[in-house]
Amino acid sequence: MFNSFANKITGQNQQQEQEMLQQQQQRDEQSKKHEAALVQNIAYNTQSTFISYFSNFQVPFDISRDLIMHFSAQYRFDPSRTHLLLSELERHQKNMNYKVTKNDRR
User: Fold this and answer.
1) Considering the entire predicted model, what is its pTM?
2) Cα(41)–Cα(34) distance, integer angstroms
3) In sequence order, what are the residues at sequence separation of 6 or more whose Cβ sits closer than 8 angstroms to the Cβ of residue 51?
4) How many C-beta atoms lie closer than 10 Å to residue 90's C-beta?
5) What DSSP line would sit under 19-46, residue for residue?
6) What is the mean pLDDT of residues 9-18?
C-alpha cells in the first residue's frame, strides 16, 4: 500500500515538473521573440534616421537603396517596413531642399 501511494506521489511530482519545464520553455520563447522585436525596432529606427544622412551627404539612390535592402534582409524586416523605408528615401531625395555644399564641408 505504501508503494502505491509513493508511486502516485512520484507520478504527480514528475507531472508537475514537466508542466513547470514546459511553462519555462514557453516563457523563454516569448522572451526571445520580444528581444528580436526590440532589435528590429532599433534597427528600423536607426535606418530611418540614416535616410536623411544619405540625402544630406548626396549618397546616390542606388547605393542608399542597396544599404536599406541589405540591412532589412539582415534584420528580417517585414516587407511593409522595407517598403516604408524605401518610400521615405525616395521622397527625401526628391524633395531635398538642403544639400551639402563645399562650404559646409570645412
Assistant:
1) 0.65
2) 11
3) 64, 68, 85, 88, 89, 92
4) 14
5) HHHHHHHHHHHHHHHHHHHHHHHHHHHH
6) 74
